Amino acid sequence: MATTFDRLILDPRRTDDTRHRPQSTRSAENEASQSPSLTLLVLLAAAGIVMYSGFLLNPANRGDFLPYVLVIVAETILVTHALLAMWTVLSAGWNPRGFAFHHAQERLYDLAEIIRDGAEDEPWRWQIYLEDRPVTPDVFITTYGEDLETIRRTVSAALRIQGRHHTWVLDDGRSDDVRDLAAELGARYVRRLSSGGAKAGNINHAMSLAKGEYFAVFDADFVPQPAFLHETLPFFATHDVAFVQTPQTYGNYDNVISRGAGYMQAVFYRYVQPGRNRFNAAFCVGTNVIYRRAAVDAIGGIYTDSKSEDVWTSLMLHERGWRTVYIPTTLAVGDTPETVEAYTKQQLRWATGGFEIMLTHNPLSRKRKLTMDQRIQYFVTATHYLTGIAPLLLLLVPPLEIYFNLSPMNLTMTPLNWALYYAGFYVMQILLAFYTLGSFRWEVLLLSSVSFPIYVRALLNAVFRREQAWHVTGRKGAYRSPFAFMQPQVLVFQFLLITTAVAAWKTYTSGVFTLALAWNATNTVILAGFIVTAWREGRRGRAEARARRAALASHERAAADLADDAALLELESVGATDPGSSAGASSASR
Fold first, then answer.
1. Cell wall biogenesis/degradation as a keyword (predicted)?
2. Cα 269 from Cα 253, distance rounded (Å)
3. Of 7, 59, 308, 420, which is the most buried if we count CB atoms within 10 A?
């Protein structure tokens, strides 16, 4: 089996062949985005959106004012974001790896030096050279209360990244156990006195201690692969590159929440982020990223005034004229939220950061030093979570018709014609998602339909400048019922259930089946699915909590028994060595 050193020698030198360079620089990871099938689906979906929009905006189809406005506002948000996403996806075939990248990658290591040092089988000892200068990057692992085994996996993997580097554990949890673990593994440990600036402040503090020209950042639950530096550092041979971002890939698709949360981001990392490369608008996602220190210093460090420090830092860098690179190559594997609590807090933090940009740093403003493409892409980012509020508006439409006979559309056409217009948008979106994700992921539909309370709260946080507490996605803690984080969904489910019963009764008495009943019943079933998911999570969590308490009690009993045995042995030892005790025993025997 070929070793890493063998592959380093045997791999073809693509930069030596100038005749076929355009083909040789086209990596397999971009083939999916260049697929004619995907292009055709995107174009058909875009055509369907245009037809559906024409149907909605046709004055002849306009219904009662209130439900019509709700539908138009919600669908405008969804349609706009769908079209812009498709435009970006069609740009995803562009490969950021050019001659400069390949030229630098082929000269990252000195083969003679590796052989002289006897390090052929220890790639983490190989000195890295960029533009014929030795560089030693820093690798930062940010921690804040994650369990020790999670941190151990990540730190152990980081220490074995190919290329000589320094690994730092940035512990904002101030744990002596984490400090001892870092010492055991051989990593550098940093603990600061305060938690100001949350994760961004933690990184900025570490930058005052580490001196590398480049630094990578990993969350404690993202395990880096050995090739991380090998695949990212060569991009910095181009002097205007500020950072190189790699995807968040997950390995814990174990339940409905984790699968839904993971699949929701899969299309973004596989198709949307690569498309942003063409517009120099790929942004950082907080982990699995490597920065040029000079670029971050130029903007005063990682942005600290928002819990979405990653997007804000990217925006600041782009406004300063820096270039960013995203590669859809999996170079770290981590954990996606597994519980309703973790998912809620993650989405609340991300959405609050997006809305903060929308309300306080509008990318479309003339004040922003961005290209038009960058303005549009950041506007999409800042308003993305409005698409999570749109389902709330659509949820309200069927009850208005059921209770007040207010219809959003004046449907004089046949149900078949209506279904064709409707399918032009929604069915094509499902087909496109089916193609890009490999199958229909109902978990995505479930979470996207029931997350509106999170995004409404995030919008209010941004409007009223409420401080959003930091929460680590992979942090494990005491059991908390998922229903403590989903009261709005439960209340809406109860309302929709009653409304469905009312609509069913009206249908039974009138003999007229309405779309409002079907629409409302569908929404009720989706929310019911989320509640069942939460109930199962709660049952599992309670069982695990009982098991932990039983194990702890057993451990305490065992410890108490050992303490009693030790005390008894000590008493027996004292009795055996006490002269008075011996004399008494002797006298008694006489």
1. no
2. 16
3. 308
